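Hi all, posting the design record for the shared folder.

TITLE: backbone redesign
STEP: 1 of 1
STRUCTURE INPUT:
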């Protein structure tokens, strides 16, 4: 589910709920470490998205001010100002999402391989 969650957010949330429920039911240490790792992946994913959103919201007024200064304070074109203000935000969001997707895929595949080999995930 987490591998699919790297591309879509909903399976990640469903996988987190399943991992939370199963973690309380199981006594096998291999499964517990696998579920613990999956929960850690989810929290890293969630905090990264919220952190990025918080940074972008706090930096957006600076982007707008720089766009106005760059285009000249006398003739402010709204389309140019909007483009100059949102382009850095779009680049940051796409970079963070790509990094998160790679992190989730690598971590999930690594954990799945260790789980199938029946060894503890570290």
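Okay, here is what came back for every position:
SEQUENCE:
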């Amino acid at each position: 589910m987490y591998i699919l969650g790297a591309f879509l957010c909903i399976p990640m949330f469903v996988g987190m709920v399943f991992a939370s429920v199963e973690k309380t039911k199981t006594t096998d240490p291999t499964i517990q470490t696998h579920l613990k790792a999956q929960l850690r992946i989810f929290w890293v994913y969630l905090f990264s998205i919220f952190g990025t959103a918080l940074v972008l919201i706090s930096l957006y007024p600076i982007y707008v001010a720089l766009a106005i200064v760059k285009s000249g304070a006398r003739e402010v074109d709204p389309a140019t100002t909007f483009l100059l203000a949102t382009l850095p935000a779009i680049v940051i969001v796409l970079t963070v999402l790509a990094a998160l997707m790679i992190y989730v895929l690598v971590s999930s595949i690594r954990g799945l391989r260790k789980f199938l080999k029946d060894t503890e995930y570290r």
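COMMENT: The chain has one domain: 2-116.
Let me know if anyone wants the other runs.
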